[in-house]
């Protein structure tokens, strides 16, 4: 079998809760020895209840948070701490994920311009990116607060894709949207994955959403991976974990 | 912005303009001794000049200086010193505050402990000590005010930046591998500006009044460049003999300037504070 696109090995993360004078040092184990492999073009879901460590794992995978222990590998190469060009993220709350004082065109074009990814005109580049996520290029001059929730989510996706990542991590990317818009965004992600050959890591607490989008599902509980199944078998899954 | 805010902004702009145009607005250059007439000394407001037809609308001081002209020139120096020191302190404080917030750990601890020590000294005491060491002069009082005030901006910038750095747009900018200086200047700083401008308006008033205090005490500006504080000091000895105008008019002008700054700061704060947006 060929080299996986991304591999996280034995990731652990703990937070120090109290470490003061004459206080007993106590820690919270957010992630406990988690390993995860993503192959190119795959679509993997991570499900779990609140506090199961899904979001912490997402932040470690993209490099926003250095893990307490464990390593990340990209196409077989060990990754240093910190962000990597090939991994981007779509955030849960699109409103706080977009700089309120920047126009859409600046949000999308800033990073590609700095990394030299824009070869022709910048407005053409932005228009292409907006078209790809199903937005009218005329929105380019708007500010985030002048957009609807669904439009903001699309801008967030366009911004992540503008730097041509291979792995897109979506952390509860549709949780804040209403059901109709959720379906639209999920279909868009599905379509973009096919068009661009993206690898998708989709984090959600919503089994339905994950089943719709993912081929393989990882179930987390209390900072551990407790089960890995194909999405088809997920229907019968709810074992002891989701009952309470 | 509230009506009061606009009013204070316009009045402040008018005073600034008057200060800038002082050489053209004033009827005499109060510090050119050749234009002064000692026979016109200590005339009450509204008196006519002895030799030429002019009127001293706000009276004259002990040297026969037209108070209105002296106040325009004094305002010029007071505002220049206040604005310059505020801009310098704002820049220094913002740079250090952003650094502390972004870097965290020992950089944060080091900068903020210096801020704590700085803020535990009364500003006037620190400025007095610095001026006693360096002597008077415009550049020296600007430096003293900078030293006395940067810490306020550093603390405000740090706390505002800490809030912004928690937001996902900063995380997104890091993921896009934008240079750190760009994230701080183009993403974090613009979102901290409303808070910083409020503090700046407030500290501008503090800087002007601190300068006036130091000049009144004779430690600030040299006699050749009198600010409002020095004008008040000049008339002080005549106050009890009934020649109130030499001190009172510069004092009133100072009060108006400070009130405008404070009203403006209040209006800016209301604008920046979402809880008050509806009022």
TrEMBL record, chain A:
Superkingdom of the organism of origin: Bacteria
A Pfam family matched in the record: ABC_tran
Name of this chain's protein: ABC transporter domain-containing protein
Boundaries of every ABC transporter domain copy: 6-244
UniProt-listed CDD domains: ABC_NikE_OppD_transporters (cd03257)
Organism of derivation: Jeongeupia chitinilytica
Keywords, sorted A to Z: ATP-binding, Cell membrane, Membrane, Nucleotide-binding, Transport
UniProt-listed PANTHER family: D,D-DIPEPTIDE TRANSPORT ATP-BINDING PROTEIN DDPF-RELATED (PTHR43776:SF7), TRANSPORT ATP-BINDING PROTEIN (PTHR43776)
UniProtKB/TrEMBL annotation, chain B:
Entry-linked CDD domains: TM_PBP2 (cd06261)
Main location: membrane
Keyword Transmembrane helix tagged: yes
Keywords per UniProt: Cell membrane, Membrane, Transmembrane, Transmembrane helix, Transport
InterPro entries associated with the record: BP-dependent_transpt_permease (IPR050366), MetI-like (IPR000515), MetI-like_sf (IPR035906), OppC_N (IPR025966)
Membrane topology listed for this record: Multi-pass membrane protein
Tree of life domain: Bacteria
Keyword NAD assigned: no
Subcellular location: Cell membrane
Record-annotated membrane-spanning stretches: 77-102, 244-265
Family designation: Belongs to the binding-protein-dependent transport system permease family.
PANTHER family in the record: ABC TRANSPORTER PERMEASE PROTEIN, OLIGOPEPTIDE TRANSPORT SYSTEM PERMEASE PROTEIN APPC
Protein name per UniProt: Peptide ABC transporter permease
